[in-house]
UniProtKB/TrEMBL annotation:
Family assignment from sequence similarity: Belongs to the LysR transcriptional regulatory family.
Annotated organism of origin: Phytohabitans maris
PANTHER family: LYSR SUBSTRATE-BINDING, TRANSCRIPTIONAL DUAL REGULATOR HCAR-RELATED
Protein name in UniProt: LysR substrate-binding domain-containing protein
InterPro entries: LysR_HTH_N (IPR000847), LysR_subst-bd (IPR005119), WH-like_DNA-bd_sf (IPR036388), WH_DNA-bd_sf (IPR036390)
Length: 295
């Protein structure tokens, strides 16, 4: 009997290409991934991976089973969703991943709505780096993710994933109260910045946006925590571009300036298409949509 969890590992290896990427997507150590793939090989009686250089690649048989694994896992989820739909109520456990500003603002209201309308539904929430959102969803680490896209940096779409747009969230330049400046360009050039770490979509967008204005931002501080960023702005140590959603929720003591072009990020929910008919997925997605309207 094929094991669904091990099939998911093989499926993710076919998607991401390396054992380390599989481990990162599914929260396993690389050694655990390799061990489970060996067990799967014993179950099917054929080599599924082979070593090339320092990495593992799928054999012909491995690629064939990976294609079946994707279909098998999707059909299993479709069957579970159909049974839940026939039952008629949203119940059981659903795993939701959110990013920071959504966790601070949209999430609490959504949880209140779900608690009152679907008391049998248990929602397990975890924080996720937005860059990992869709890969982790495809790898079945979560059932729903609340994700974001920055201008010009669309997240890579994946087959079998349904995206539901929620709202546009303006990106605002914030400075300490009373900061003097002749122009936004002069301010961007003259002051130290706090941004998210390199490689993050928000950081890459912000640097590119400044360069489009002919200015190279002087990034002196880095933090993935936007609350840390606004505190450095409040105390006069840096300037930053942060989402309006955060400013509405936290109301920091900062002056807000319009960033040229009035950029905004897109916020969306995503789930696997095989769960389109799941009452639990529908309930959570609708709760996020209602919460977004009331933000």
């Amino acid at each position: 009997m094929l094991n669904a969890n091990r099939l998911a590992l093989l499926d993710e290896l076919a998607r991401s290409g390396t054992v380390h990427a599989v481990g990162g997507a599914l929260s396993y150590s690389p050694s655990t991934v390799s061990q489970q793939l060996k067990v799967l090989e014993q179950e099917v009686g054929v080599a599924l991976v082979e070593r090339v250089g320092r990495g593992l690649v799928l054999t012909r048989e491995g690629r064939a089973l990976a294609e079946h694994a994707r279909d098998i896992l999707a059909r299993m989820e479709e069957a579970e969703s159909d049974l839940a739909r026939l039952r008629g109520t949203a119940a059981g456990t659903i795993r939701v991943a959110v990013f920071q500003t959504a966790a601070l603002s949209v999430l609490p209201t959504a949880l209140d709505l779900l608690a009152s309308s679907h008391p049998k539904l248990r929602v397990v929430v975890s924080h996720i780096d937005p860059a990992r959102a869709l890969p982790a969803l495809a790898a079945r680490e979560h059932d729903i993710v609340l994700g974001e896209e920055y201008p010009g940096r669309p997240v890579a779409r994946r087959a079998g994933i349904t995206l539901v747009p929620l709202f546009e969230d303006p990106l605002v330049l914030v400075v300490s109260p009373g900061t003097r400046h002749e122009s936004v360009g002069e301010l961007i050039f003259a002051r130290a910045w706090v941004m998210e770490p390199e490689g993050n979509d928000a950081r890459q967008w912000a640097v590119a946006a400044c360069r489009d204005l002919g200015v190279e931002p002087r990034v002196q501080y880095e933090s993935p925590d936007l609350l840390v960023q606004v505190r450095l702005v409040e105390t006069g140590h840096a300037i930053a571009v942060v989402p309006e959603l955060l400013l509405r929720r936290e109301r920091p003591r900062v002056d807000r300036l319009e960033f040229p072009g009035r950029p905004s990020r897109s916020v969306f929910t995503a789930h696997r298409a095989a769960a389109d008919s799941s009452p639990a997925v529908t309930a959570v997605t609708e709760a996020f949509a209602q919460s977004a309207l009331s933000r």
